[in-house]
Write a structure and sequence with these properties.
Blueprint: E1 5-6, H1 27-40, E2 45-47, E3 57-61, H2 63-71, E4 84-104, E5 114-127, E6 133-139, H3 140-153, H4 164-169, H5 171-179, E7 188-189
Parallel strand pairs: 1-7
Antiparallel strand pairs: 2-3, 3-4, 4-5, 5-6
């Protein structure tokens, strides 16, 4: 089932998400709905707060970026190998490598792109959908997507990476998103409606 994406301005996006256990109600159904919702929005990652749940869960599929990169010789996507994965109760253990700047977007903030500097490698401890624990280092675009989705679990949005000046320059656009005065190409839920 395709769920509405929670729009910028909703309080759940600023909350620190809580861990879950294996007995979380209807978890497999929730994960399936998150995949469907993410693909419907043409995203490469989706965190639970973006569908209104303040739990530590996100999904990413960077394999689709690899396919796009193979089709586009001028792509600046750094991706040797794509992944499709569920991350439950993730904890960043370390971030390392050269920081690199890339323009990111977010399904909760349509039509806003922000250049963000992130480390090229992230080491993460997490549980998969079967609650098996893993500790893995990810790099390139996989690390960036993980860092972006992890930010959602910490109540951090891409606008929080902007300077106050840049944020003030797009304040009207952000206000319109919060009020639902936008035409998104996917189902959204606005706090002001």
């Amino acid at each position: 089932m395709i769920l509405p994406i929670i729009a910028y301005g909703h309080p759940v996006l600023k909350k620190v998400a809580q861990p879950i256990t294996a007995d979380y109600p209807k978890l497999k159904e929730l994960i399936a709905n998150m995949w469907e919702t993410m693909y419907n929005g043409r995203g490469v990652g989706l965190a639970a707060p973006q569908i209104g749940l303040d739990i530590r869960l996100f999904v990413i599929d960077s394999e689709q970026l690899k396919e796009d990169e193979d089709d586009d010789e001028e792509s600046d996507v750094r991706l040797t190998k794509g992944i499709k994965q569920v991350f439950i109760n993730p904890q960043i253990i370390d971030e390392s490598g050269e920081p690199w700047v890339y323009e990111e977007g977010c399904l909760s903030i349509p039509d806003v792109r922000v250049k963000i500097s992130r480390n090229e490698t992230v080491k993460l401890r997490y549980q998969d959908e079967n609650f098996v624990e893993h500790t893995v280092s990810f790099n390139e675009m996989n690390a960036r997507i993980i860092q972006h989705e992890y930010d959602h679990l910490e109540g951090i949005l891409l606008t929080d990476h902007m300077t106050p000046l840049k944020r003030s320059l797009i304040k009207k656009k952000l206000d319109n998103i919060a009020k639902g005065n936008i035409a998104a190409k996917y189902k959204m839920k606005f706090s002001a409606k």
